[in-house]
Amino acid sequence: MKKGLSQSLNLASARLSSPLSSPTSSRGILQTSSANKTGLSLRLDSTLKDGHDMKTFGLGTAATLSSRHRYAKFTSSMLHAYEALENSLDECASEPVSHVWKEFKDDLRRSEKLKEDFYDVKDALDCFEPSVATKGYVNSMVLAGKRDDEDGGGRLIGHLYCRYFADLMGGQVLAYPTRLALGLKGGTPRHYDFGKFGEERKVNVERLYRAFNEAGEMMGPEKIEDVVEETYLAFEENVKVYKEDGRLWQDSAIGGFNVVKGLLHAQTK
């Protein structure tokens, strides 16, 4: 029963694990890309296999839909994380990092949209202070940026990959069920919407892969290993945020029920 529940609630991960139906699907993009078969992109994608906890991601995502309070707390955590990441990327002078961020920052930046999404539900949260797990996640990004500035490394690319690729490859499908489950107004949540960049996802993901490879060519083998290690760390810190409140199975079941209830309500309007 738990296995079936996990599969039904893993809204985003299903896009990566489902059979290839189209070159523009998430799995189709990963399979048909040419740039991700070599260089730093290949190494980054390898972290998805043994570093990205799909089960926790799926259950944690569904659990955030169990109540406005839990969703508000999670949105607050993501706002803190994205603000820290984007500030670190903006300030980082390391050539490999700035090479990637300079080209894509206007399309990838999420913090302003997350801030608007948080304001929609902030009444459900007692305070805006980051949680213990969120503080740890934020600190890992800030430290990565400082170390990149010191040695010209690309650790922040690992955090960029962890966050924005998750949004591009799976997160975009979450807007509608989130809106249904929590009764949010139309057009929200905003941070899942990448506009034209997301509409042309296949082309732009390939551009990102090429930029990763170009950044990798600016670094020696040791610094590339630092990026891969940091990517694993980013996934680990992200999982801690998802797990922090516990009750993943219980709240993910409630979240799934809320989606179904919201869908039925929408169909009767």
UniProtKB/TrEMBL annotation:
<dbReference type="GO" id="GO:0006788">
    <property type="term" value="P:heme oxidation"/>
</dbReference>
<dbReference type="InterPro" id="IPR016084">
    <property type="entry name" value="Haem_Oase-like_multi-hlx"/>
</dbReference>
<dbReference type="InterPro" id="IPR002051">
    <property type="entry name" value="Haem_Oase"/>
</dbReference>
<dbReference type="Pfam" id="PF01126">
    <property type="entry name" value="Heme_oxygenase"/>
</dbReference>
<dbReference type="GO" id="GO:0042167">
    <property type="term" value="P:heme catabolic process"/>
</dbReference>
<dbReference type="InterPro" id="IPR016053">
    <property type="entry name" value="Haem_Oase-like"/>
</dbReference>
<keyword id="KW-0408">Iron</keyword>
<protein>
    <recommendedName>
        <fullName>Heme oxygenase</fullName>
    </recommendedName>
</protein>
<keyword id="KW-0349">Heme</keyword>
<dbReference type="GO" id="GO:0006979">
    <property type="term" value="P:response to oxidative stress"/>
</dbReference>
<keyword id="KW-0479">Metal-binding</keyword>
<dbReference type="GO" id="GO:0004392">
    <property type="term" value="F:heme oxygenase (decyclizing) activity"/>
</dbReference>
<dbReference type="GO" id="GO:0020037">
    <property type="term" value="F:heme binding"/>
</dbReference>
<dbReference type="GO" id="GO:0046872">
    <property type="term" value="F:metal ion binding"/>
</dbReference>
